[in-house]
C-alpha cells in the first residue's frame, strides 16, 4: 500500500502545473458537467499527500483544501463512481463541517481521474446543497468526461515533457556548438598538423596548419573526402601505411619521417598515430604531426661534438703522450751521460724534433676545438 501510494503521488506531481490552454479546456468541461448533471458545483481536483488541489471549478471560488477535509479522498480509494445521495445520512460525511455548517453540502458524486499507468490522481466531482440521484445517462457522462479530463491532463504533461526535452536538446546543441567552436579555435591555432583519417586513408578533417603546410610544400589544397595518399611521397606513404594499419588495430604509435628530401622544404616530422573510437569500434586514426627539424639538427650537432671530443681524448691519451715520453727519455739520457759528455748536438736535435712534433699536435687540438666551438655557436 505504501509503495502504491508513493507511485500515485509521483503521478499526481506530473499534473500540478497546467498551461493556460489546458486550464481553459478543463473549465469548459466542469461547466458542461454541472449543466448535464444539474448541479451548482463541479470541480476537477488532484489529491496529494496532504492537500486537495482544485484545478478547475464551477460554482465555487477555492484553490485548495486539506486532504482530510475532502470528500474525494474516499473516491480515489475505489475504482467506481462514488455517489452520496444525502451526505447528512452518510456516516462518513454527516459530521463534516461542510455538511453540518457552511454550505450544508448534501449531494456528492465523484469519478476518478485514472492515469494510463493505473493511479487515481484525483476526481471530476459534482456537489449540491440538496439531496439527489443521478440518472444512468448522467453517471455515464460523468465517467466519460472524467476520462476526457485525464486525457487533457496527460496531454499537458506530454507536451511539457516534450518541451523540456526540446529545450534540453537545444541547450545541449548550444553547449556542443560552443564546445566545438572552442575546440576548433584551439585546433586551428596549433602549429602542429592535425589530420583525422577514416578507415581507408580518407581525410575526414584537418586543421589550418595542415592546410597551409600542403599548400606551401606541394602547392596542393587539402580537401576533406580526398585520400592522404594523394599528398605523400611514395617512400613516406609506404612507411606511413604500416603505422596507420597498426593504429587501426588499436595501437598508439609514434615515429619519425624525413620528408621532401632535396627540396627547400626538407624536414624531419614526428608523427603520432592515435586510434579514434566510436563506442567500442575503431572508426579511424588521428595524426598529430610536429616539425622536429631543429631538434634533429641539434641532436646531430651534439653527436658531432661528442665525436670531436672523443678524438681529442684519443689524441690526448696516445699521440701527445708519445712526444712527451720522448722528451722525458732524452732528459734521462742527458742525466746519465753528464760524466761522459759527447756531441750535445744530437740530443738537442732530438729535443727540437720532439718539441716541434708536440707543438704540431697541440695546434691541431686547438684548431679542432675551435671548429667544434664555432659549429656549436652556429647551430644554437
Please characterize this protein's 3D structure.
Its EC number is 2.7.13.3. It catalyses: ATP + protein L-histidine = ADP + protein N-phospho-L-histidine. It is an enzyme of class 2 (transferase). This is histidine kinase. Residues 21-163 form the GAF domain. The protein is α+β, with helices and mostly antiparallel strands. It has three domains: 2-163, GAF domain (Beta-Lactamase); 191-291, PAS domain (Beta-Lactamase, 2-Layer Sandwich); 296-379, Helix Hairpins (Orthogonal Bundle), CATH 1.10.287. It is 52% helix and 20% strand. It has ten helices and eleven strands. The protein has helices at residues 2-13, 20-37, 72-75, 97-100, 136-189, 208-217, 234-248, 293-319, 321-336, 344-379; strands spanning 41-47, 51-58, 64-66, 82-84, 107-114, 120-128, 193-197, 203-206, 253-259, 267-278, 281-291. The strands form two sheets. It has a six-stranded antiparallel beta sheet with strand order 3-2-1-6-5-4. A hairpin with a 7-residue loop joins strand 9 (253-259) and strand 10 (267-278). Helix 2 runs antiparallel to helix 5 (136-189) and helix 9 packs antiparallel against helix 10 (344-379). The chain is rod-shaped. The model has no long low-confidence stretch (mean pLDDT 85).
Amino acid at each position: 500500500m505504501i509503495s502504491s501510494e508513493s507511485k500515485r503521488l509521483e503521478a499526481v506531481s506530473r499534473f500540478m502545473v497546467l498551461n493556460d490552454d489546458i486550464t481553459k479546456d478543463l473549465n469548459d468541461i466542469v461547466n458542461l458537467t454541472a449543466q448535464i448533471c444539474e448541479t451548482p458545483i463541479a470541480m476537477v481536483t488532484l489529491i496529494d499527500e496532504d492537500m486537495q488541489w482544485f484545478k478547475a471549478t464551477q460554482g465555487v471560488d477555492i484553490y485548495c483544501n486539506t486532504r482530510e477535509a475532502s470528500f474525494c479522498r474516499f473516491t480515489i480509494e475505489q475504482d467506481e463512481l462514488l455517489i452520496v445521495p444525502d451526505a447528512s445520512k452518510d456516516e462518513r460525511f454527516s459530521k463534516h463541517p461542510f455538511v453540518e455548517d457552511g454550505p450544508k453540502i448534501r449531494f456528492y458524486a465523484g469519478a476518478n481521474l485514472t492515469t494510463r499507468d493505473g493511479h487515481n490522481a484525483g476526481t471530476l466531482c459534482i456537489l449540491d446543497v440538496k439531496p439527489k440521484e443521478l440518472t444512468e445517462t448522467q453517471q455515464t457522462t460523468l465517467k466519460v468526461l472524467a476520462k476526457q479530463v485525464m486525457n487533457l491532463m496527460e496531454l499537458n504533461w506530454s507536451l511539457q515533457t516534450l518541451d523540456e526535452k526540446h529545450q534540453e536538446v537545444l541547450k545541449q546543441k548550444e553547449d556542443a556548438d560552443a564546445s566545438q567552436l572552442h575546440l576548433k579555435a584551439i585546433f586551428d591555432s596549433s602549429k602542429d598538423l592535425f589530420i583525422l583519417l577514416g578507415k581507408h586513408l580518407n581525410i575526414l578533417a584537418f586543421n589550418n596548419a595542415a592546410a597551409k603546410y600542403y599548400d606551401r610544400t606541394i602547392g596542393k589544397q587539402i580537401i576533406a573526402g580526398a585520400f592522404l595518399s594523394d599528398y605523400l611521397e611514395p617512400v613516406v606513404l609506404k612507411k606511413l601505411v604500416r603505422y596507420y594499419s597498426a593504429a587501426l588495430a588499436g595501437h598508439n604509435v609514434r615515429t619519425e619521417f624525413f620528408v621532401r628530401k632535396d627540396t627547400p622544404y626538407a624536414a624531419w616530422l614526428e608523427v603520432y598515430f592515435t586510434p579514434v573510437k566510436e563506442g567500442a569500434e575503431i572508426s579511424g586514426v588521428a595524426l598529430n604531426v610536429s616539425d622536429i627539424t631543429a631538434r634533429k639538427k641539434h641532436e646531430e650537432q651534439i653527436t658531432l661534438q661528442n665525436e670531436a671530443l672523443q678524438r681529442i681524448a684519443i689524441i690526448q691519451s696516445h699521440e701527445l703522450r708519445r712526444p712527451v715520453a720522448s722528451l722525458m727519455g732524452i732528459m734521462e739520457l742527458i742525466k746519465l751521460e753528464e760524466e761522459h759528455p759527447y756531441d750535445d748536438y744530437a740530443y738537442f736535435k732530438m729535443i727540437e724534433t720532439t718539441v716541434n712534433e708536440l707543438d704540431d699536435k697541440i695546434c691541431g687540438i686547438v684548431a679542432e676545438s675551435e671548429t667544434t666551438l664555432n659549429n656549436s655557436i652556429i647551430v644554437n
